[in-house]
Amino acid sequence: MAPLIARSANPAWTSGGYGSLAASSRIECCEVQLEMGEKGKAMSASARKQVLILGGGFGGLYAALGLERTLALKRDVQLTLVNRENFSLFTPMLHEVAASDLDMTHIVNPLRKLLSHGQFFNGEVEHIDLISKTVTVVHGVNRNGHELKYDYLILALGSMTNFFGLPVLQHKAMTMKSLSDAIHLRN
To answer: N or C: which end of the chain has fewer CB within 10 A?
Structure first.
């Protein structure tokens, strides 16, 4: 079993807790079954199941919210969401920010506030080791590295724009996938 991820004074972490125990749960949104401890029996920190979600877009965020709702009363499951940005972006409205019809603060939500029971790590995925069940993430300007252990891994890292092998298009096109893209287009 993976040890509990240590909580520290590191500003990249935020923590939460879980309520009382229950016998078992089926996580519908991910079609995964986690076996929980017996009712009323306290779980040690090292016996907690680690669920690691990589990516805070629509897929990762809704997986985290669904798991939080399903596992809200489980003390033996620790949920961690990793994203390179500390906010969730509602991309269908990016064009309105680019056109100055909408302020950018209306399409972003802080991930820490959206997660009530899970942890959030603001960092970028560097390496995934499926054999040892670890993910290496880096954060900050110094790219400080951390190794996160998991029992269950959800990959929701998003997508990249396909330029269909046209290097000139890739170099000259203005994409609209991030908040900085919308601001660049607006200015």
So the answer is: C
* Residue 143 to residue 184: CA distance in whole angstroms: 26
State the total domains in the chain: 1
In a domain, residue 80? The reply is: yes
Let me know if residue 113 belongs to a domain. yes
